# Entry
Amino acid sequence: MADREYRTGEFFRNQKKYSDAISCYQAAGKIFPEHSLALEKMAYCLIEVKDFAGAEKIVQRGLQVSQNSAEKHFLLGKISAEKNDFENAQKEYEAALNLEKNNPNYGYDLAVFLHKIGKLDQSKKILEKLLENYPENPIFMNYLKIVSEDLKR
# Structure
């Protein structure tokens, strides 16, 4: 199967050797074209090396394999944000969160993105909702404080 290639790709990705990781994920994809995780990780690496067009192509291919993948929508959000397509980025980040409502990472990343593009009220709402579910999370608490201070300005 493609497990050896995928695991080797993970090894390189964890070492931030993205080009090597991409080669391994490509090899995994040749063996098993529907290897959804290999497609996601390859797209992540392509984003890291600033190949946004390549990453988008891979994610779109991955969505054909699994249409309801929150991670793929999240990656499309990241790609769109990098391309300054903020409207689509927000749509994709929200799609990821809607598919996995209890995933705090998607909520946090959406809140950070909204803050960066000046949608402070929306960012604050998401952070407050996150804190309802994770009341002791210091990262969420600190970021809510930053957003709240920015709202006062």
Observations:
- The first helix runs from residue 3 to 14.
- The two ends are 56 Å apart (CA to CA).
